[in-house]
Amino acid sequence: MPQIQLTPAERREQRANAHHLDPVVLIGGDGLTPAVKKEIDAALNAHGLIKVRVFNDDRVARELMYQELTAELNAAPIQHIGKLLVLWRPQPVKERTVDEDRMPGPRDVKVLKYSKRGGQRPEIKQLRVLGNQRLTSGGQIKRAKPKQKSIKKRQAD
């Protein structure tokens, strides 16, 4: 697979984005094993921009690992500084299946009810609001009303 080519401005932007990241894959004394390559590939699919730490003192070996990773995983080399390698690959588009019958699930809500007499602690209630219900400003649960149709649309049906 061909290696991704980035302009210097794009590479600089990716370096800035990677600055705060922690390494997600650590390469130990065994070097680039197939399991390590698989983990790096999975991390690139999940995150897009990753840091890899190599526990190897030989700079030439680290540079070879860097080149091998970018070539085999179709990733763009962003930065090689010390024992850190920064790689980037665009994330694949995740397909989402739309389930039209699916309704929003229940959610738990905490409601504070203040006492009418001042100085007392507010009462904390844990309420479960279902998908067809709503919570009013007074802390009551009401069933959601169906959306009103206009007269013309009702007559057309």
Give a quick summary of the entry:
The chain is an alpha+beta fold and 157 residues long.
Question: Which properties best describe this structure?
Answer:
four-stranded mixed β-sheet; two-stranded antiparallel ribbon; alpha+beta; 4 helices; Translation Initiation Factor IF3; 29% helix; 8 strands
The name of the CATH topology of the largest domain is: Translation Initiation Factor IF3
Helix % is: 25-40%
- Low-pLDDT residue intervals, each spanning 5 or more residues: none
State the assembly state of the protein chains.
single chain
CA radius of gyration: 27 Å
The count of β-strands is: 8
Tell me, rounded to a whole number, the average pLDDT.
Answer: 88
Distance between the termini: 56 Å
Order of helices and strands: HEHEHEEEEEEH
CATH top level class name of the largest domain: Alpha Beta
CATH architecture group name of the largest domain: 2-Layer Sandwich
How many domains? The number is: 2
How would you describe this structure to a colleague?
It comes from Acidovorax benzenivorans. The chain is elongated. The mean pLDDT is about 90. It has helices spanning about 10-20, 35-45, 60-70, 150-155; strands at about 25, 50-55, 75-80, 85-90, 105-115, 125-130, 135, 140-145. The protein starts with 7 loop residues before the first helix and ends with a helix. With about 160 residues, the protein is of the alpha+beta class. Helices cover about 30% and strands about 25% of the residues. The protein has four helices and eight strands; from the N terminus they run H-E-H-E-H-E-E-E-E-E-E-H. It has two domains: about 10-90, YhbY-like (Translation Initiation Factor IF3, 2-Layer Sandwich); about 105-145, no CATH class.
